[in-house]
Amino acid sequence: MKTKPQSPLALLGIALAFCMTPAWAQDQTPKYAAKVPPSILTPDTVQTRIGTLKFFDRLPDAETVQKVYDNLHATRTEPVRERSSPGLSAMHLAALGGRAARVV
User: Fold this and answer.
1) Which of 82, 86, 83, 42 lies closest to 61, judged by CA?
2) 27-70, pLDDT tens digit by residue?
3) How far apart are CA 83 and CA 63, in angstroms?
4) For the chain, N or C: smaller number of CB within 10 Å?
């Protein structure tokens, strides 16, 4: 079965239809656009105990990310150190072989 070649004019019309569709879509404002109250949006800057956190387009900048990770590291490191202290003390006592009891 032989196919008939399409006319260039028809192909041009189809191409123009595809190119014009985005332009028509940009002109229309969606009817479902919600009006978000400013009270629930992320502000551009937030004052905290670790410093000023800055956001651009609702995303944190590099300095803010570093501050938050440093704070997270500090807050998680302290409990680990406290929980491991008794184990380390027992390990050191075992390594001394009971000599610590005689010193006292």
Assistant:
1) 42
2) 566 677 778 888 888 789 999 999 999 998 889 999 999 999 99
3) 31
4) N
User: Whole-prediction pTM value?
Assistant: 0.44
Calpha distance 81→70 (Å, rounded): 16
Encoded tokens for 1: 């079965």
Residue written as tokens 């929980």? 83
Q: Which residues pair with 47 in a beta bridge?
A: 52
> 55-85: b or e for each residue (b if 16 or more CB lie within 10 Å)?
eeeeebeeebeebeeeeeeeeeeeeeeeeee
**Structural tokens at position 50:** 């670790």
Phi then psi for 32, rounded to 5 degrees? Answer: -95, 5
Q: What's the CA gap between 75 and 81, in Å, rounded? A: 11
What are phi and psi for residue 28, nearest 5 degrees?
-90, 135
